[in-house]
Amino acid sequence: MFLDRFSARERRLAGVTLAVVVAFVVFRAYVAPAATRWRQLKDQVEAARAEVTVMEATLKLKKRIDKEYEGFQALLAGSRSDEEDMAALLKDVYEAATQNSVDVYSIDPLPTEYREACRLLGARLVLRGRIVPFCRFSQRLSSGSSLTFMRDLEIRALSEAPNLQVTVTVVRMATRTDSAKGMEETVSR
Question: Cα(188)–Cα(182) distance, rounded to whole angstroms?
Fold first, then answer.
């Protein structure tokens, strides 16, 4: 055959060379690409881990900010200014008077009184009308979700009987807010 022409030493050398060539081809065809791909995947995993760490930190920050923002929204939603509460009181007084046929001659807002746990918003009213509509007016005004009461009541009979002139202070209790506390401290200085 073909290999019989070569000596034993040359055949061994040819076999070793063939084995080296086959090993080189197998290495280049299978092992080297797999090793390269392994290194690339290893780098991608490290990059992904770093990205996940950044995303977790960002998510923690977002959750903390959202929590603080919700608390801030709740604070803003729960607190109303003295002007808003006074406007609501005056609106309720006027609506109660007009629905019960009581004439409103004057409404004078009073300064807000600050107590330890609440604010007292008041208005001095001069009303004219009959006694029954006035009683309905006072009932409608004092029945509701907010605590409203009357004080300093003065009743005068008018010359055109049975009409009355009623002078009364209407007071509504409102919750105290931090801004109101700060306002009171500023005013007291």
Answer: 10
Cα separation, 87 vs 83, in Å, equals 6
Nearest to 127 by CA among 179, 72, 165: 165
Residues 50-73 pLDDT 10s: 999 999 999 998 898 888 887 766
DSSP state of 3: G
Query: Taking Cα atoms as reference points, which of 108, 106, 148 lies closest to residue 128?
Result: 106
The beta-carbon contacts of 89-96 under 8 Å, at least 24 apart in sequence, are 89/121, 89/123, 89/148, 89/170, 89/172, 90/123, 92/141, 92/144, 92/148, 93/123, 93/125, 93/141, 93/170, 96/137, 96/140, 96/141
The closest alpha carbon to 101, from 130, 74, 70, 121, belongs to: 130
Q: What is the pTM of this model?
A: 0.48
Would the CA dihedral through 87, 89, 92, 95 be positive or negative? negative
Give the tens place of pLDDT for each residue, 43-54.
Answer: 999 999 999 999
User: Bridge-partner residues for 155, per DSSP?
Assistant: 166
Residue position matching structure tokens 């009357």: 150
Burial of residue 104 (CB within 10 Å: 0-12, 13-18, 19+) is middle
C-beta of residue 75 within 8 angstroms of C-beta of residue 137: no
Specify the CATH architecture of the domain 82-188: 2-Layer Sandwich (3.30)
Distance of CA 60 to the CA centre of its chain: 18
